[in-house]
Amino acid sequence: MIAVYRTAVKAVDRARNDDGPTLLECRTYRWRGHVGPAWDMDVGVKRKDELKDWLPKDPLAQLRSFLMELGLSRKELDCTEQEIREEIEEAVLFARKSPYPGEDELLDHLFVKTEPNHEIT
Q1: Given this model, what pLDDT does residue 12 score?
Q2: In contact, 89 and 82? CB cutoff 8 Å
Q3: Which residues of the chain carry a pLDDT beneath 50?
């Protein structure tokens, strides 16, 4: 979990210094349903056996333990988690209430806009 963070910071630094892109492959285990928040949605008999081995490796639970070892209290972490959940819920509500973009906006933020004689290398 911390290794991913440190590697991502290095990747961002490389990109900002024009040293090229970085591909990070982060493998983990999908232990919740693919299309919903249910714990066992889409988890068949075979996967239920695997689940007991992977739950202790959950990176979010590991991060929580790591932060508590550094001195953060359970209450502080719970409060932060609640704030994050509320922020996500607000973003989802905003997105659901927002109109769909017009056709003239569909390609916005997808490509780098360059000057006519500027080559991207």
Answers
A1: 95
A2: no
A3: 45, 121
